[in-house]
Structures are given as C-alpha cells and as structure tokens.
Amino acid sequence: MNVGIKIGMETAREATVRGRLAVAFSLVCMIPIITGVVDVTIVSKYQFFNESDDTWLYCYYTGSLINQYGYQFGVEVDTGSGTRFTPQIINGVVTGDNSVRIRDSVGDFRVGAFSCQVRGRSQTEKVITFKMKSQADVWPVAFTVTASLGDPVTLQMIHKFNRTGTLEWRRDGVGGTVLTGQNSTSLTIASARSSDEGIYECYYQGDTERKQGIMKLIVRA
C-alpha cells in the first residue's frame, strides 16, 4: 500500500476521523486460526448498549480469500445466556462484509463475547469483540490484554457505579474457573501461563442482572 505524507496542520475533520479509527481498532481482538492472505475485522456497534437498544455486529474481510464459504457469527463463551446465537436477528450482506442486528427483545443475550469466522478451503480467520450493558457495575480498562509467557500481568476493571458487595472473577464463562480469593477490581497473575489465556469476567457475587465487565487475556509464547 502506498502511503502519502501530508505536511501541515491537521484539520478538525481529519482529527475526528483519526480518533474514530483509533477507537474502532481498540475494540477488536484478532485471533488467527490458520495464517493466510485474508484479513477479517469485527466491529461492535454499540460496545456498551442501553436496555432498549438494538445492537449490531459488523464483519469485514479483505484479501484474496478464494472459495469463501461464508461468515459465521458466534458466541465465544457462555457468559449467562448460553452459546447458541439468537435467531432474533436481522442479517445484512454486501460485497466484502456481513452484519447482524441483534434486537433489544433478546435482553441479556446482548451481553458477551461474540465472534465472526470466515472460512476458505484452506484457511480460516476468526475475530472477537465484546458487548456490555452501559449500566454495568464495572468496566474493563482495556478489552484485550496481551502478555508473554512468564511475564506478570494485571487485568484491571474500574467501578462505574456505587454498589456494595463482593466482587468475583471467572475465566471462560459459566462452567469455567471461578478465581477464588480475587475480590477486587484488579486481578494480578505473577507469571502468565498458556492456561491463563481466556475470557475474563468481573461481577458482584449473586448478580442476576448481567452487569459484569468482560475482557480477554492473550498469552504469547
């Protein structure tokens, strides 16, 4: 790709566009399954939603993906609503991208870790993004944290609303691992292992309103 260099003062419009792109890229977690010449991006609109909102997932691909077998939206882990994708959606398809509109009537299904997978004959790419309630008790400082094997790493949430109770962390959803003794907004791992990789949730014990914070830890070799 040829990139031109423009010398001079950045316009307000250019600054706005640049800011929006920075936000968009910060919301994406890309996980290649098989390396290939396809590039897949998932965008969550909106990352934080109100109770009465419909919400969207957009999946885009670029590159020479020959014999493309289609898109598959999915739920990565059970964060409280199972792993089956709701049928209460509206699909949209144009060349190079696919979208799904998730209706507000599905309620708490809108909370979770969602993926888009694009399959070819010899390669597959999958990307992950997250959705949370705008009224969630805690929000992640970053949706994705990457660490190397053996490195210390801290997963950090922040309080958004005043609430009393005991916080709890779990890894990889319902049926996953509840991390006993981790009762604050930060979770520190002294030496990251491959088994620490996964999707983490932080929530108040006994919460039935799906107001958890969600994030992902990637551990590189």
UniProtKB/TrEMBL annotation:
Keyword tags: Membrane, Transmembrane, Transmembrane helix
What InterPro entries has UniProt attached to this entry? Answer: Ig-like_dom (IPR007110), Ig-like_dom_sf (IPR036179), Ig-like_fold (IPR013783), Ig_sub (IPR003599)
Residue ranges crossing the lipid bilayer per the database entry: 21-43
Kindly give the SMART domains that the UniProt entry links to this protein: IG
Q: Which SUPFAM superfamilies match?
A: Immunoglobulin
Indicate the segments forming the Ig-like domain, all copies: 87-202
| Protein name per its UniProtKB record | Uncharacterized protein LOC109484805
Organism equals: Branchiostoma belcheri (Amphioxus)
